């Protein structure tokens, strides 16, 4: 379970005084009358997910592990950030024992990047998982056409079993294409939006291919939905966090910096930024989600946070037990004068850095700090964290009176771009 500490958050209101509003919003979410209620499938997905499809994901992942060196995930936004966040968080940035490397395309128009991916995979055993709910996203469609032609050239008929489409259950260009060409498909449920979809086949297939237990992930999600299931702000840290954000917004803070002390959680921050930015940034409201990995970024952004304009508050996501800890060795010559740390563990140093930074930013820098602590970095923890942030963003956005589940603003650039590209 993720714990919450608001004692450094400099709130000028008592979180508990929001209880009545929270009760109302929670009731509207639970009984399905909230705004955006056609996209709340994630709320009971931990119980309602398709068990047969889940078994098929496990079988498909096993097959890919046996016949592929690389899984190319072709998708953008909610159709790739979640699996990438989970895989990097759990397996790390240089995973020595991950059988199949997972790489990403379909998330950019950069010809240089797309070509680099094609060069990288050309002599490897490849499976492609194209992921798109709408089936028409242009970044994804461009990369997929190139990939698909490559797969047919390389494998002929075998390409059919090496291309997998995760898309809408019945409609859409990609579903049509996959059925016509005989590719296996997995379903993105109608009532779960992209940024909530890591708990569906969108995330589960790539995560399973990376050798990570999706059973544990779903267990973490299920427990999380119970742990963050109550309306009571004293018992639900996700809702208390949601309220703290609203109070800080009312105090004039426009930016939330999501801070981690584990580099392999950087993509979790990217996933969180989409979840929070796309859900809340509308109707002229919302807190801009930003992120940093400390202590790395203390050597770049640290100056601004400490002494710059007071626009931001920090939300720290600490990890209680990292997967690995290492002792710092002693050195007889001690020419670097580092022996004062000899025999200490490096994670202890990381935690002391976090403590010192919290004090520097909060006390000297006058920056509000929210502290979240998760127990570890396992797939169970990832699933549990999804429940925490899903519940938090739904509550905090509904408290703003906005619809957490749409993203009308994303369409504007597409309209302009299509005009320039000459699309009918
Ligand atoms: O959250 C969202 O809905 C978006 O970020 C989408 O996931 C993203 O635009 C990709 O869309 P699609 O899955 O339809 O290709």
Please provide a written account of the structure.
The protein has 424 residues and is α/β, with parallel strands linked by helices. It has two domains: 3-33 and 219-399, Glucose-6-phosphate isomerase like protein, domain 1 (Rossmann fold, 3-Layer(aba) Sandwich); 42-212, Rossmann fold (3-Layer(aba) Sandwich), CATH 3.40.50. It is built from 16 helices and ten strands. The protein has helices at 19-30, 45-48, 51-67, 81-91, 111-121, 138-155, 159-162, 173-181, 201-209, 214-227, 237-250, 266-280, 302-307, 346-364, 379-399, 411-421, and strands at residues 3-5, 70-74, 101-105, 126-132, 163-167, 184-187, 255-260, 288-293, 312-319, 369-374. The strands form two sheets. It has a five-stranded mixed beta sheet, with helices on both faces. Helix 8 links the parallel strand 5 and strand 6. 45% of the residues are buried. The mean pLDDT is 97. Bound molecules: 5-phosphoarabinonic acid. The site of 5-phosphoarabinonic acid (PA5) has 14 residues, from loops. Keywords: Cytoplasm, Gluconeogenesis, Glycolysis, Isomerase. The active site is at 278 (proton donor), 414.
Topology:
Blueprint: E1 3-5, H1 19-30, H2 45-48, H3 51-67, E2 70-74, H4 81-91, E3 101-105, H5 111-121, E4 126-132, H6 138-155, H7 159-162, E5 163-167, H8 173-181, E6 184-187, H9 201-209, H10 214-227, H11 237-250, E7 255-260, H12 266-280, E8 288-293, H13 302-307, E9 312-319, H14 346-364, E10 369-374, H15 379-399, H16 411-421
Parallel strand pairs: 2-3, 2-4, 4-5, 5-6, 7-8, 7-9, 9-10
Antiparallel strand pairs: 1-10
Bound molecules: 5-phosphoarabinonic acid.
């Amino acid at each position: 379970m993720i714990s919450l500490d608001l004692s450094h958050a400099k709130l000028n209101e008592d979180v508990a005084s929001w209880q009545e509003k929270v009760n109302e919003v929670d009731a509207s979410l639970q009984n399905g009358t909230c705004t955006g209620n056609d996209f709340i499938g994630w709320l009971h997905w931990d119980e309602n997910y398709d068990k047969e499809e889940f078994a098929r994901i496990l079988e498909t992942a096993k097959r890919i592990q046996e016949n592929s060196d690389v899984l190319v995930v072709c998708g953008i936004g909610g159709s790739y950030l979640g699996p990438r966040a989970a895989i990097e968080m759990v397996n790390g940035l240089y995973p020595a024992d991950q059988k199949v490397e997972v790489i990403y395309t379909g998330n950019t128009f950069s010809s240089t990047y797309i070509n680099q991916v094609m060069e990288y995979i050309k002599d490897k055993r490849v499976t492609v998982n194209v992921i798109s709910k709408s089936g028409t996203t242009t970044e994804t469609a461009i990369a997929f056409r190139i990939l698909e032609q490559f797969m047919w050239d390389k494998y002929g008929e075998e390409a059919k079993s090496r291309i997998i489409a995760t898309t809408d259950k019945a409609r859409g260009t990609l579903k049509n294409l996959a059925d016509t060409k005989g590719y296996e498909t997995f379903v993105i449920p109608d009532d779960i939006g992209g940024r909530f979809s890591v708990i569906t086949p969108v995330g589960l297939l790539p995560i399973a291919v990376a050798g990570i237990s999706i059973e544990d992930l779903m267990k973490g999600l299920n427990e999380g939905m119970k742990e963050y299931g109550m309306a009571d702000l004293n018992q639900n840290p996700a809702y208390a966090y949601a309220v703290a954000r609203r109070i800080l917004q009312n105090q004039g803070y426009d930016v939330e910096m999501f801070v981690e002390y584990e580099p392999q959680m950087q993509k979790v921050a990217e996933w969180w930024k989409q979840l929070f930015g796309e859900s809340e940034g509308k109707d002229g409201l919302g807190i801009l989600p930003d992120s940093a990995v400390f202590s790395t970024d203390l050597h770049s952004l640290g100056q601004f946070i400490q002494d710059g304009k007071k626009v931001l508050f920090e939300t720290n996501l600490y990890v209680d037990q990292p997967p690995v800890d290492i002792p710092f060795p002693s050195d007889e010559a001690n020419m670097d004068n580092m022996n004062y740390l000899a025999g200490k563990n490096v994670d202890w140093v990381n935690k002391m850095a976090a403590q010192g930074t919290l004090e520097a930013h909060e006390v000297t820098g006058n920056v509000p700090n929210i502290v979240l602590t998760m127990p570890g970095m396992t797939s169970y923890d990832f699933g549990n964290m999804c429940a925490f942030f899903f519940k938090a963003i739904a509550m905090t956005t509904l408290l703003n009176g906005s619809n957490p589940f749409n993203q009308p603003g994303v369409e504007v650039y597409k309209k302009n771009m299509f005009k320039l590209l000459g699309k009918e």
